[in-house]
Amino acid sequence: MSADAIAVLRVELIDIEPLIWRSVAVNAATNLQTLHRIIQAAMGWQDYHLWEFVADAKTYGVSDPEDASWGHKVYRASTMTLARMIEGGVTAFDYTYDMGDNWEHRVAIERVEPAEPGRLYPDLLGGERRCPPEDCGGFSGYYDFLDAIAGPDKGKGSRRKKEMLTWYGGPYDPDDIDEKQTRAALKRIANTARRGKQKLPTPDCRAAQLTLTTGLRPRRAETPEVL
Known about the structure:
Layout: E1 5-13, E2 21-27, H1 32-43, E3 51-55, E4 58-61, E5 74-76, H2 82-87, E6 92-97, E7 103-114, E8 123-128, H3 138-149, H4 158-168, H5 179-199, H6 203-214
Parallel strand pairs: 4-5
Antiparallel strand pairs: 1-2, 1-7, 2-8, 3-4, 3-6, 6-7
């Protein structure tokens, strides 16, 4: 797979109707730690809770030495990339966010294509409906929340509506994915990755700099991680 390959992903929140989904173009070299941040930004989550990926019968996330004692091996998410998964034949995998509310997502790798010159990745390609509020209580709590905010502004049900919107912190439109905010969040991730690459001189440059300043031959440079 070429170094500039792009994977087009479709992320769906499982078991909620109408469907909540996003389509995102991501560098295939992205590791799962960074993909977690991308999904959070694309879906509109706030990254308050634990999370994990399950791909090819392996779990990836934030590893804990005590995981083994529970019979649940968790591999570090930063050690697996989309490119390796694609090359291994993976076409879809699972992502779970917030083990209490248990928001399960299905991530499908729809296609792989060359990157467009000058375009920043990750990039939002499309989507429908806003994700549920954080800590709303899972599926049942989400539907209760929607019922409450659909109530009248005055009369019976208005107090519950006001309480729910106050708890949420403002207005909530389930049909609005807040595209402007989503694109801004993804752009911050893309710019962070780009700045990281620009700050790292090439191995030849580092060798020349070290030789000129110290007269010593440098050790072999490590390959920087690509996001």
